[in-house]
Automatic annotation (TrEMBL):
Keywords linked to the UniProt accession: Cytoplasm, Phosphate transport, Transport
Keyword Transport: yes
GO CC annotations, alphabetized: cytoplasm
Any Pfam family hit: PhoU
Oligomeric and partner information: Homodimer.
Domain PhoU positions: 23-111, 127-212
GO BP field: intracellular phosphate ion homeostasis; negative regulation of phosphate metabolic process; phosphate ion transport
Subcellular location: Cytoplasm
Principal place of residence: cytoplasm
Name the UniProt record assigns to this protein: Phosphate-specific transport system accessory protein PhoU
Lineage of producing organism: Bacteria, Pseudomonadati, Pseudomonadota, Alphaproteobacteria, Rhodobacterales
Length: 241
């Protein structure tokens, strides 16, 4: 009986490692999409933006594979307690990565519109800086997952505050540009939603980090996502006026 349990445990570990390999591949694609989308915006590169759009299909496919393999693992191995928590965490991480891929695709789509408008001075550079921060957060969150490192996960949560501050600064900047010259309104609205998409990616990277904390300690932080979204509501109020 002891040998049977050992065999089941080793088979579970092998299956989980295969799923984790898919997660890391998915994470690499998402990180590349964030980087490429921000670069396409700054350099007004439509071809690079199209590359991001196509990459989203590969990310979606990997999410499907992760979910299918995770469901199969649960059905075949009947994991309990911490093993089941590990599998469910993998599925949640996959969902967060897929959402980041969607946001990168949306960023790329808006780039295709913005290339036909006069650029807003400094905006694309600031957005690329913000995207780079989120890209680093995502990489750190995935490293924290592989290493089961709560300290790294908490660093991601702390860095999300910096991303929020970057977003708030851009929000105020876009409002100023729109008030100074109504001809800037359309471009600034597109840029705002791009910045909002990147801020949301930061939230999803933070959610992954919080799943690592849950997986390691058995508890989610008290202030875990979702968080309040005051700035988005402010912009919605402006749009409605």
């Amino acid at each position: 009986m002891h040998n049977d349990n050992k065999h089941i445990a080793s088979a579970f570990d092998r299956d989980l490692e295969a799923i984790q390999a898919l997660i890391m591949k998915m994470g690499g694609l998402v990180e590349a999409s964030i980087k490429d989308a921000a670069q396409a915006l700054e350099e007004r590169d439509v071809e690079l933006a199209e590359k991001v759009h196509k990459s989203d299909k590969a990310i979606d496919k990997l999410e499907e594979e992760v979910n299918e393999e995770a469901a199969r693992l649960i059905a075949l191995r009947s994991p309990t307690a911490s093993d089941l928590r590990t599998v469910l965490t993998v599925m949640k991480i996959s969902t967060n990565l897929e959402r980041c891929g969607d946001y990168a695709k949306n960023l790329a789509k808006r780039t295709g519109v913005l290339v036909n408008m006069n650029p807003i001075t400094g905006a694309a550079t600031s957005i690329r800086r913000m995207a780079r921060e989120v890209e680093e957060m995502l990489k750190l969150a995935l490293d924290a997952y592989i290493q089961r490192d709560v300290g790294m996960a908490n660093e991601v949560r702390h860095r999300d505050l910096d991303v929020d501050q970057m977003y708030n600064a851009l929000f105020r900047e876009f409002l100023t540009y729109m008030m100074e010259d109504p001809r800037n309104i359309t471009a600034c609205m597109h840029l705002h939603f791009i910045a909002k998409n990147i801020e949301r990616m930061g939230d999803h990277a933070t959610s992954i980090a919080e799943q690592v904390i849950y997986l390691t300690t058995g508890e989610l932080p008290e202030d875990a996502r979702p968080k309040g979204d005051i700035t988005s509501q402010k912009m919605m109020d402006v749009e409605g006026e």
